[in-house]
Design brief:
transmembrane helix; mainly alpha; T_SNARE_dom; NPSN/SNAP25-like_N_SNARE; transport; 6 helices; transmembrane
C-alpha cells in the first residue's frame, strides 16, 4: 500500500520521533568519548529526557492511530501498527544502551525505563506504552511505587536521626571528659601549691629547729660551766681564782664572818 495514505498528523508525529532517534544516536556516540564521570552522568540525563519525550510521542501516535482506525483500511492499520512496533523496538534499544552506560558510571538514579521489554516491544510497567493495563492496575502500580518511596524516605529519616543521636551522645561524652580533665588539672594545681607550701613550711621549721638547737647548746654549755664551777668550789673552797669570778665570790660581810677574831 502507498504510505502516503497515513494521515498528516501521524506523519508529523513520526517525523518528530525520528528526529529524537537521530539525536539519541548522536548523543550516545558523544557519550562514548566523554571520560569525566560527572559529564557522562549529565549527558546521560539529557538522553533520558529525550527518551521520555519519545515515549510520550509514541503514546500520542498510538492515540491518533486508534482514533483513525475506523477510517482506515485493514492494510493501512497494519502498516501503521508495524511502524509503531518498529519505533517501540528502536526506543527499547536505546533504553538498553542507556542502562549499560548507567551501570558503567555507577548511576544509581531510579530508572523510569527499567524492566525487560515484551516480545511485541511493549513493557507495560516500564519503558513504553501501558495500553494493555487497566486504570486500576496503573493506580495500584503507582501506589506501590509511592509506598516504596515512602519506606525509603522513612529509612533515610531513621538513619539521619540515628546519626544525630550518635553525634549528640558523642558531644555529651566529650563535654563530660573535658570537664573531668579540667577538674583533674585544678586538683593537680592545688596539690602542687600544697606541696610548695608544705616545703616552705618545712624549711622554716628546719631553720627554727636549728636556731633552737644553737640556743639549747649555749644554755647547756652555760649550765655545765656553772655546775663545774660549783663542783670546783665545793672541792676547793679556798681557790682564789673562783673567788674572783664575778657573782661567785662571797660578799664582803661574809669575808668578815670567816676572818678570825682578834
Amino acid at each position: 500500500m502507498d504510505l502516503s495514505e497515513i494521515s498528516e498528523e501521524l506523519a508529523q508525529i513520526e517525523g518528530q520521533i525520528n528526529d529524537i532517534f537521530r539525536a539519541l544516536s548522536n548523543g550516545f556516540q558523544k557519550l562514548e568519548k566523554i571520560k569525566d564521570p560527572n559529564r557522562r552522568s549529565r549527558q546521560l540525563e539529557e538522553l533520558t529526557d529525550k527518551m521520555r519525550e519519545c515515549k510520550r510521542l509514541i503514546k500520542e501516535f498510538e492515540r491518533v492511530m486508534k482514533e483513525e482506525e475506523s477510517r482506515n483500511t485493514r492494510e493501512t492499520v497494519k502498516v501503521i501498527n508495524d511502524k509503531k512496533q518498529s519505533m517501540i523496538k528502536e526506543l527499547n534499544s536505546y533504553v538498553a544502551l542507556k542502562k549499560q552506560q548507567a551501570s558503567s558510571i555507577e548511576n544509581k538514579r531510579v530508572d523510569l525505563f527499567d524492566g525487560p521489554s515484551a516480545e511485541n516491544g511493549f513493557g507495560e510497567e516500564n519503558v513504553l506504552l501501558a495500553s494493555s493495563m487497566t486504570n486500576q492496575q496503573l493506580m495500584d502500580h503507582g501506589n506501590q511505587m509511592l509506598d516504596e518511596t515512602d519506606q525509603a524516605i522513612e529509612r533515610s529519616k531513621k538513619t539521619v536521626q540515628d546519626t544525630v543521636n550518635v553525634g549528640a551522645e558523642t558531644a555529651a561524652a566529650l563535654k563530660a571528659q573535658t570537664e573531668q580533665m579540667s577538674r583533674i588539672v585544678n586538683e593537680l594545681d592545688s596539690i602542687h601549691f600544697s606541696i610548695k607550701k608544705a616545703s616552705k613550711l618545712v624549711k622554716e621549721i628546719g631553720r627554727q629547729v636549728a636556731t633552737d638547737r644553737c640556743i639549747m647548746a649555749m644554755l647547756c654549755l652555760i649550765v655545765i660551766g656553772v655546775i663545774a664551777i660549783i663542783i670546783v668550789k665545793i672541792v676547793n673552797p679556798h681557790n682564789k681564782d673562783i673567788r674572783d669570778i664575778p657573782g661567785l665570790a662571797p660578799p664582803a660581810n661574809r669575808r668578815l664572818l670567816w676572818a678570825p677574831s682578834d
